[in-house]
Amino acid sequence: MQDIDSVNALLYTALLDFAERVSQHKTPQGMSYEIYESIQFINQNVNRKIRVDDVARHANLSRSSLNRKFKSELGFDVSRFIMRCKLEEAKRLLTYSDRSLSEISSYLCFSSQAYFQNVFKKQYGITPLNYRNKTIIS
């Protein structure tokens, strides 16, 4: 950041990101406590290697019960949500940090950088590097 306009632009973007994250922590009406707690657990552990079994244990449910509740209440399974959270965090890191793709991949516990890049491109239709170049704040 070399000038006040750049700092202000970053501050505004950070404020919007903060507001979005706060709004995501409100429990939607009709959502069970177990699903809400599962979502919180996943979001708090996005940089760890978490499995559906870990989430189920945290929610005091069996793996199949958790998947059934997740599918019923949210429309998709737990493993898909975990990946979605990791990819959303990757987008934030690509935009707001100067970490390398390798560092981001490792931080988010992807098995390899190539796998991270493939999953990211499949989800968003753009490579992580192209996404960074498109969204970088100058």
Number of helices: 8
For the biggest sheet, the summary is: none
Structural class: mainly alpha
Mean pLDDT: 88
- Sheet-strand content, in percent, reads under 5%
Report the helical percentage: over 70%
Radius of gyration: 17 Å
pLDDT < 50 stretches: none
Instruction: Note the overall shape.
Output: globular
Cα separation of the termini? 8 Å
Strand segment tally: 0
- Secondary-structure element string: HHHHHHHH
Question: Could you describe the 3D structure shown?
Answer:
- The protein is an all-alpha fold and 138 residues long.
- Helix content is 71%, strand content 0%.
- Helix 3 (52-58) crosses helix 4 (63-74) and helix 5 packs across helix 8.
- The radius of gyration is 17 Å and the shape is globular.
- The model has no long low-confidence stretch (mean pLDDT 88).
Structure summary:
With 138 residues, the chain is mostly helical.
For the structure shown, list the relevant keywords.
138 residues
What is the strand and helix layout of this fold?
Layout lengths: L3 H21 L8 H12 L7 H7 L4 H12 L3 H19 L4 H7 L5 H12 L3 H8 L3
Helix pairs in contact: 3-4, 5-8
